Structure formats: C-alpha cells, structure tokens
Amino acid sequence: MERGEMTDYLPSYVQGEWWTPSSPARSTEVRDASTGDVVAVVSTDGLDLAGALEHARTVGQKSLGALTFHQRAVLLKQFALALTERKDELYALSSRTGATKNDSWVDIDGGIGVLFSYSGKGRRELPNSRVHVDGPVEPLSKDGSFLGRHVYTTLPGVAVQINAFNFPVWGSLEKFAPAFLAGMPTLVKPATPTGYLAEAMVRTLVESGLLPAGSLQLVSGSVPDLFENLRLGDIVGFTGSASTAESLKAHASVQTGGVRFTAETDSINASVLGTDAVEGTPEFDAYVRQLVTEMTTKAGQKCTAIRRAIVPTGSADAVIAAVQARITEKTVLGDPRAEGVTMGPLASTAQRDEVLRQVGRLREAGGRIVVGTTDAPEVRLVDGSAGLSPDGAFVSPLLLRFDDPQADAAHSVEAFGPVSSLLTYDTTADAAALVARGGGSLVTSIATHDPVQAVELATRIAPFNGRMLLLDRDDARSSTGHGSPLPNLVHGGPGRAGGGEELGGIRAVLHHMQRTAVQGSPEMLTALTGVWHAGAAAHTDGRHPFRKSLEELRIGDQIVSASREVTLSDIETFAHFTGDTFYAHMDETAAAANPFFPGRVAHGYLLVSWAAGLFVDPEPGPVLANYGLENLRFITPVSPGDTIRVELTAKQITPRETDEYGEVRWDAVIRNQADELVATYDVLTLVSKQPTPEVVAA
C-alpha cells in the first residue's frame, strides 16, 4: 500500500480525547514483522504535547490526588480485569509484531500480572491515605516535644514513559502501575514499530470507563520537543539503548531543570556455568535450556537476554553441542500465526538489519558462528508452507564462540536479537572478572550446585548487577528464569544498564514520590501523617475504645488500665505452665549475676499477656480479632512486688476498601509503679467499619 493511500492514522489519546493528525507533513509506516504488510501509519504533526503534559499536571493530579493508596490499588485490579476480558484482541495484534503465543503471554499476561501485583502490594504495604511514612520516629528533644519523621508525598508533575519496541504492553504497565499507585499521572510514548499494540491496551483501559481523568495519556509517534516542555516535578522513565539514554540525560531539563530521569538500557547480561555443572548434571541441562530459551523468546529481543554464556573451558564443546541439539529439536522459525511456530521474526526489517550488522562486528572481533547462520532462513509461512520471506524480519538463532574471552567486542557489542556469545574461563575469579567486563548488567545467572562457588561468584559480581539468579536442581523447575523481571523485585542495573530501578515493589512507587524530612511537635506530626505520636493529644472519654467501630474511633483514643502486682508465685506458675524455666526467672543467684537483671524477674511474655488482660474489653463488639503484635521491645525488668499498668492508644486507622472492616494499630506501653517504661509494642486488630449490634448474653 502506498503512503498516499493511507487515510487512517494510529491515534494518540491526549487531554481526554482521541487525536489523529489531519494532514501531516511527516509520517511513518509500521509493517507486519512477518509479511511486511502495512499495519499502521504514525504521526504526531500538530499534536499539542505541551497541553497534554499540562493536562496531566492539573486534571490528572487532581483526580488521582483525591484517591488514597488503597483506592488506587483497587483500580489497578479493575484495570487488570478489564484487560483480561479483552486480551484475545491484544494477542491477535501482538502476532503482527512477530511475537508467538508464548511471547505474547510474557508481554500481555505479564503486564496484567504487574497490575494485579501492585494492587495487592498497595493494599498490604501502604496506608489507606495519601502520605507514606518512612522509618521510625527520630527524637530530637529530651522531653519528646520535638520530633522528626521522613514522609513521602506525590511528585506534582507527570510521569513520562519512553518505551522500547520489544514489550509494548508489559513495558507500559510496569511503569504505569507504580506511578498510578503513587498518585502520579502517566504519559506513554511507545516505540513506533509496535506502538499499535500499546494503543490497543490504552484504548481498552479508556473504554472501561475506570481511568480517573488525566491519569493516562498516549502519544503515538515522535516527541521531538518533549524535554523542552518538562519541568521540576516531572519524571522520565526511559527504556532503550544506552547511547540514547546518555543523550537524553544530558538535556538541560535533567541536568539543571530538576526533571528526574531514570533509564533501563541494553546490557550485556551473562550466564555462568559452574565448574561442577558438567555434562550430565541437572545444572548443565538447566543451563542449556535457559540459554536457548533466552536466545529464542521474543527472538532474543529482551533487555534481560543472555548475551554472554560464560562456561568452563572443558565444558565449551559440550555446551555448543547441547545448544545446537536443543535448537534443532525445539525451535521452529516462522510466522507466529502458523501452527507450530515457536520463534517469530524480529520487530522490523530495520531491526533485522541492525542485528546482522552487530553480528558482523562480533565476527570481525574474533567471534566464530558455531550454531546457526546469517543466511536468510527458510521459515514456516502463515499458510503452513516453508519458504523464504524477504519482507519478513527473520534471523536464525546464533551462537558465536570467542577463543579470546577478553575480546572487547564480546563485552560491549550487543546484537539485540537471537544472538549469544560463548566465552570460556578457568577459575571462578576469571568468571567473575568476565561478568564485570560487561560494565553493569541487568541480570547474571549462575548455574551451580556448589554453595562455595555460588557464594564466591555472587559476592564478586553483585556490584555489577541489578539482579542475580542462582540456578540449581532444587529450583530449576520453579525458577521464573534468567530473563524474567518480577514486579516485587528490582528491575534495573548499574553502569551500562542505566542505573535505574524499575519495578521492585513499593520501592518503585516511592520513586514517584518525594521523601521529605519533617520536624515538629507530636501534635503536628500526627496531623500530617495520620499516625499518632507519643506526646500528641490522647482522648479518654470514658468509653472503652474497643466499643467503637472505625466510624466512631479516632486517632488518639486511649485507655489507661488499672495496675496489677507481679508476685513470685505468678512468675513460677507461668514458668511451669509454659515450660519457660530460663534461669533469670527461676534462679535468684544466677539472675543476680546477670548484668541485665537485679535478681529473678518476670517473663516478658507474662507481662504482655497480663497487659492484654488489663486493656481488653471482653464483650462482643466492633473488635473482630487481634491478628498481630509488632515492634515489641522490653526495656525495664519487672521484679516480684512490682506493679504494671498499660496505656493503649489508637495509633493508626486503616479501613479496607473492599471489606466491611479495617485495621487499627494500637500503641501499647507498659509502665511500672515508678512510671518507668517496661515494654513498648504495637497491637494490630481488625475492627468493623460500622457499629455492631450489642449481643445479649442468654
């Protein structure tokens, strides 16, 4: 199809509307990776990018700012369900990018899984509020009237994604989920060759009606003046080449304008075969399976793919033979829509040509092709027949061997496709040095069943990697694999890999927020954080706090118990009843010789048990369960004849968005007759949101 015949352009979604150019001066055709057919035409001529960014900063910030972390987390789950309902449409489009069904599963279902994961983590690990408290209280005065806390608040700008072509769905959602949970609106700029799949994903979310206004926008095409329109409070998350990342990072808006810039770039990842993992061992087999998987999944177009297979010198020939055998047995190259195809083409013919160019550089540097060929491969066509596909972006899996493992190109040139290089080593120190030659990687895996070698390698190479996988017979079946970033673990790496940390659970959420040290009185810090601080106002209105539902309970509601004397008989009874006859409770002479005790003392757990008896209201009511105790510290020993009392204060109230109850965290303090601090801890209870009918005993 000629360019002039195209009238439909891939739309952008900006300022709450779908937008297409009317008569662009410049546009780009996007073609099917297998057949070369035109799939879409892309242009941003006339798009108001500055207006889109401002829309995010105003409308998006307002709509997301009205929601708590938990409310945003619930929406993430609903987004995941909406995409799940229509993922067959996404799979159909994904095949045009060259992705097989398994490749599409990694991208589409993997992206949906990120939404589910962040939804769960947001509700479990963040408060049902808009401010996140980081770390413990820092006392700044002797009398407790001046305190310090660190708090996280949402950045006031827009999170801009610049994504790579290889994962148009997962790549967008892995950045969107933590930004959304943090309360920061997102503008997605997908890579042009596969941007039509990202557009379909965004369209599904828009049509669901679930997106808060301005929370997600999409620009289909180039953004040449993007950085000129960014300002302090904005953040850019880039995935792509290291060279492009360096040029973007050098922009004045980043260098002096305060725009945060993070990059996840190409990296020369390694996989090390241990000296014990010889042919015939489970570790050898797992290593070969993993290497072939990383060469062929997404046609090797993964930032986490294995580019350097580092193996003991004596195992090199066996590895090459095993890789050749597995590729021959398991790999069918062709159009992903054809039955039985296990590896599709690269994303575009331009990418194919670039991969072959980089393979040429590796060969010039001494790499010998020992598996595969650079000749145009015969492939399985969409009709099931075999033949050449000159308009398709097909490249055979290639393994090169370097006789000189120190060759610079092996550690610096990346052919971003189904290409790996085999390097040999003699000692564990040599292997670690080869890994480090990559200049910083996203991931390195180690296949060994020898803990000594695993520990030596891991401790040597950890500073050069964002993630490490220790692969052996015990985890080979359950392992998610060398090339699979997970939403609850950091994805990123130092040096060449970009220095960013995408994903990583709540760490990634906090990346979209500002950590600020706040100093003030207990009263002011309580008001800011929603967490009661000792010294702030406490309320004792005569009604036991356990009789109050979440609707009625307030931060600072408190009960001060009566006192109870601890006797020697109590200590001995508890010791024999529980079996805890530790000498400090039973032997006066031995206890007195201990520098921590004046003599026999009460068990700490006896005191905590008695404390519960002192503060609990026993009747049925809004308190449904005690489900935890945290941060327990014993401060002052309690001797026979001492008395204890408890102060219990509502410290934090967290309603659950999808349940009829919530969590109340209580500040518990045990004191003795001299008002000395005996113990401190937090009690966790589940409490009904609404008042419960009183239960009348029969």
Please tell me about this protein's structure.
The structure is a single chain. The chain is α/β, with parallel strands linked by helices and 698 residues long. Helix content is 32%, strand content 24%. The chain has 20 helices and 29 strands. A seven-stranded mixed beta sheet has the order 14-17-18-13-12-19-20, sandwiched between helices. α9 links the parallel β12 and β13. α2 packs antiparallel against α4, α3 packs across α4 and α3 runs antiparallel to α6. The chain starts with 11 loop residues before the first strand and ends in a 10-residue tail after the last strand. The N terminus is likely disordered.
Please outline the helices and strands:
Layout: E1 12-14, E2 17-19, E3 28-31, E4 38-42, H1 49-65, H2 69-85, H3 87-94, H4 101-125, E5 132-139, E6 147-154, E7 159-162, H5 170-182, E8 186-189, H6 195-208, E9 216-218, E10 235-240, H7 242-249, H8 252-255, E11 260-265, E12 270-273, H9 282-296, E13 308-312, H10 316-330, H11 349-364, E14 367-371, E15 379-380, E16 386-387, E17 398-402, H12 408-412, E18 419-425, H13 428-436, E19 441-447, H14 451-461, E20 465-471, E21 490-492, E22 501-503, H15 506-511, E23 513-520, H16 522-529, E24 558-560, E25 564-565, H17 568-578, H18 583-586, H19 588-593, H20 604-615, E26 623-634, E27 643-655, E28 661-672, E29 677-688
Parallel strand pairs: 7-8, 7-10, 8-9, 10-11, 12-13, 12-19, 13-18, 17-18, 19-20
Antiparallel strand pairs: 1-2, 3-4, 5-6, 6-23, 14-17, 15-16, 21-22, 24-27, 25-27, 26-29, 27-28, 28-29
